[in-house]
Amino acid sequence: MDEPSSRPSLTDLISSYAILPTLATWVSTVDLYHLALTNRTHYSHILGSPTLFKKLRRLCLCDGHGLVKRQNFQRPYYSDPKAGKPTINPHLYGDEEIEVKLYNAKCDEGGALPCVKCGINVCEECRYYLRARPSYKTRRPHVDSARQISNIMCLCPECDSAVEEEVKGQFLNELCDCDPWVRWICTRCKIEESDFDTEYCKKHTLKEFYWDDLGTGENEDPGRRNRERRTTKGARKRDSNDLNEEDSASDDLGSDDSGSDELSSDHLGRPSITIIDHAFEVAFWCTCGKALEDDNPIRCTWCRRRHLPEDDWYKDGRDGMPFFDNDPDYPRWISDGNGHYPNPYPKLGYVREGDDTGETSI
Questions:
Q1: Residues 6+ apart with CB under 8 A from 337
Q2: Residue 114: what are its φ and ψ, rounded to 5°?
Q3: Nearest to 21 by CA among 52, 43, 49
Q4: What angle do helix axes 29-36 and 50-57 make, rounded to 10 degrees?
Q5: Is 96 exposed, middle or buried (0-12, 13-18, 19+ CB in 10 A)?
Q6: 178 pLDDT exceeds 80?
Q7: Lowest mean pLDDT segment, chosen from 110-119, 172-181, 277-286, 323-332
Q8: What is the per-residue pLDDT for 349?
Q9: Helix (H) or strand (E) holding 197
Q10: 3-state secondary structure 189-251
Q11: CA nearest 159: which of 300, 289, 266?
Q12: In Å, what is the CA distance from 85 to each residue of 93, 227, 266, 299?
């Protein structure tokens, strides 16, 4: 009588290429990665070939972390205490998600698509994009309706050529066509993008009211000037409250804490390439520190592709916000001649239990 064969171990299953893809469809990419780190044999079968792992992760489930961050208002999401409340400048604040939709949303594990950055599968509810109509925002990621710029960088010819080689052949369009509401990106990559944008602005850009502190412009360190501008010669001493107020004001393009009423005549010719940001000019330097000329192309910090010329930013036909304009859950608030909003609140697209719909049952 033959002895019964022993059951195959997990390692035996992972070593079978016919079974491994099926296994991948039942776990998230993070779980598959951690499984590969349990021992050397698993590592060799799962992560030993980058091409194989790339194919396997396309089969994985969404892990649901993006939706958890939305519901807990964790980065890159945040809760604005002034959202929806009457303030002196209500147009400066957006809105927040409708709670009945936010907390009833479910992660669609099997309906995930790869993140445009890392390739990890993420579902519709977990990918990052603004779920409520923001203030000033448009479908353009680089300039909003108030002419405030973001998510752009300028590079010297050498660095620009290197980046061009990196992105060559990766996109159908040579120029940036990023749409923040269509773009499929996970929250982790979005945080990395935001951190890069913040660091670039701190270290390689300078507002026009600080140009008088610059040197020759070549290999200038605007980040150092940003850090030192509060301690320049002749500046008055500030207490801790003044510093806190200044830190908050430094994010506003309209603030001027440089201690100078007018720009030095040596720098009225602009220290580097400049772009209009709302009502002021901002100078840009390359990441290597070189000053730039006007003919240096502008690049998107998201996809790293070259951007349309500055004068053509409003000619791309992306003025509408169909994600909100066509959604009955976000009725368009049109005030009357006296600036008053409609009362009562417009009927939303969903009907809750107990709502009077005006319909009679037969």
A1: none
A2: -70, 140
A3: 52
A4: 150
A5: middle
A6: yes
A7: 323-332
A8: 64
A9: helix 187-204
A10: HHHHHHHHHHHHHHHHEEEHHHHHHCCCCCCCCHHHHHHHHHHCCCCCCCCHHHHHHHHHHCC
A11: 289
A12: 9, 35, 47, 37
Distance in angstroms (rounded) separating the CA atoms of residues 95 and 135: 8
Using DSSP, state whether 144 is helix, strand or coil: coil
How do residues 88-115 score in pLDDT, each as one tens digit? 666 666 677 878 888 989 999 988 999 9
| Residue 264: predicted pLDDT | 31
CB atoms near residue 112 (< 10 Å): 26
How confident is the prediction for the chain on average, in pLDDT?
A: 75
Other CB atoms within 10 Å distance of the CB of residue 135: 16
Q: Distance (Å, rounded) from C-alpha 89 to C-alpha 78?
A: 20
pTM above 0.70, yes or no: yes
Sign of the dihedral through C-alpha 42, 48, 52, 54: positive
Assigned token pair, 4: 């019964």
Spatial distance between the Cα atoms of 42 and 179, rounded to a whole number of angstroms: 39
Q: What Rg do the C-alpha atoms of the chain give, in angstroms?
A: 26
**Domain ranges across the chain:** 136-233+262-313+324-348
pLDDT tens, 203-229? 899 888 888 766 544 445 555 444 444
Please name the residue that has the structure tokens 């951690």: 34
Q: Report in angstroms the alpha-carbon separations of 305 from 144, 151, 153, 261.
A: 19, 12, 10, 38
Six token digits for residue 1: 């009588």
Q: How far from each other are the two terminal CA atoms of the chain, in whole angstroms?
A: 74
Pull the structure tokens for residue 76: 């890159």
Q: What is the pLDDT of residue 153?
A: 92
Q: Alpha-carbon distance 226 to 206, whole Å?
A: 7
d(CA 55, CA 283): 43
How far apart are alpha carbons 208 and 270 in whole angstroms? 9
Cα–Cα distance measured from residue 105 to residue 125, given in angstroms and rounded to the nearest whole number:
7
pLDDT tens for each residue of 258-292: 333 332 333 334 577 888 888 888 889 998 888 88
Nearest to 141 by CA among 298, 257, 22: 298
